[in-house]
Amino acid sequence: MTDKSPSGAPWRNFYGRLKGKHMKDTQKAYVVEDLAALSLPNVTWEDNPERTQMDMKAQFGDHPVWLEVGFGGGEHMVHQAMQNPDVQILGCEPYINGVGMLLGKIRKEKVTNITLHAGDARDVMDILPTGSIDRAFLLYPDPWPKKRHHRRRFVTPEHLDPLARCLKAGAIFRVATDIEDYVRQTMEQMTMRDDFEWLAETADDWRTAWPDWYSTRYEQKALREGRTPHYMTFRKL
Predict the structure, then answer these.
(1) Which domains does the chain have, with CATH numbers?
(2) Neighbour count for residue 108 (Cβ, 10 Å)
(3) Is residue 196 a contact partner of residue 164, using CB atoms and an 8 Å limit?
(4) 181 carries an active-site annotation
(5) Which residues of 204-229 are buried (b: 16+ CB within 10 A; e: fewer)?
(6) I need a labelling partner for 103 at 20 to 30 A (CA). Which of 53, 115, 195, 216 fits?
(7) This prediction's pTM
(8) 62/86 Cα distance (integer angstroms)
């Protein structure tokens, strides 16, 4: 993009809420007390206008790094961190209420292998080196149900192209959603690409959760309301 903001950043439209009306005082305290220490440095355009690529070894050592885009309340991310202590998990979430919820879960479970960016995942993908991410998750993303808003969904080239660049060859990309039209758009976008392959082998594969899956509060709401979760797995070529 050629148009830029005063900071030098390209104009990127952001849609969705950054903060809810009701945030618990405890969650506000977690944000004040814990967020800075757990945040990925030099992500914003103000802090890193040259978009210098991050030093993965300095930040994460020799550990595999998994990326979760839009972690919601953080249930899945904390579960994966606890089940995979040798993996470093990087989560992006602009909704500060969700960040506060996650920070509370991190305190409770005492996990130490999570790093956060309380902002747009695109800014993180800007500075991730090519082929640096071992696994990525897109779980119950904002469905943007109106047709005129479908371009806002994550499963568009604006997001999938930088994600593909960041993923290692052989890396797994998991997508979960209860919205059938989101499934349609995901499959349309992913199957037209030549840098991913869909790993489904049977008709029921995308109705069966992954063995290490942790059902999120968004999924529980979908089940209560009678919607069917879908689980799609792709491999970076």
Answers:
(1) 25-236 (3.40.50.150)
(2) 9
(3) yes
(4) no
(5) eebeeeeeebbebebbeebeeeeeeb
(6) 53
(7) 0.90
(8) 9
